Amino acid sequence: GDDQARAEKLMEEVTWENEARPLETIAIMQPHMVASLLENEHPQTVALILSTQKIDHSAKVLNSMNDSVRSDIMYRIARIEQVSPEIVGQIEDALRKEIGIVARQDKQQQLGGVNRVVDIINNMGQGADKNILEGIEKTDPDMAEEIRKNMFRFEDLINLDGRTLQTVLREVNNDQLTLALKSASDGLKESIFQNISGRAAEMIQDDLEAMGPVKLSEVETMQQTIVKIILKLEEEEKILIPGRGGADALV
Questions:
Q1: Where do the domains of the chain lie?
Q2: Which of 25, 79, 182, 186 is the most buried (most CB within 10 A)?
Q3: pLDDT in tens, 38-76
Q4: This prediction's pTM
Q5: Residue 141 burial by CB count (10 A; 0-12/13-18/19+): exposed, middle or buried?
Q6: 58 near 85, Cβ under 8 Å?
């Protein structure tokens, strides 16, 4: 259709330089055009291609793609670790057939992984994570959990404004909070104590001092419980987390 014609025209304009690379070309194409170019490719190929692109560009391309393939592509990106120059070369050869550009080999690249998926989801706007994570959960619950853990870390509570923090803390009891704060930074403790009553803060400080050694795994499990509460509040649109899907930020 029109998009294909526009894509071909764009390709003609950028193929004058024989060193140009398909993956660089994709980086300058409109996201919806990239999405239509890739819609018939195997999800693994799409995952490899998107893992070579800038985070915000990958996020926009995924936003233009069909819901049904998104979580599969993201799952595959999460599982990519190292990609050899040969693989990148093969992708570029396949793309060259599609968009007519000469490929150039490059050194081994670190492309995918859980952190990349987290960054892409955070750039896709609010609500994107729910469908993607549910899709990944069906295939690999452990991977979904790993992504969730990295999407918002307990220590990130320090970035929440007072009102948001208070909304979160209303959902958490003092015993839970005390255990979760056992390994927290002084800055985070201070931020939390400023947003609860003086009496509650004093009690938690006393309990922390009186608490003996605790297994780190128990502390982390409690921190993760609180993170899940935060993500649920965000999903219910009761709070906004800064830095996630910037377009929806409150001004």
A1: 2-146, 154-244
A2: 25
A3: 888 889 889 988 988 888 899 999 999 988 899 999 999
A4: 0.58
A5: exposed
A6: no
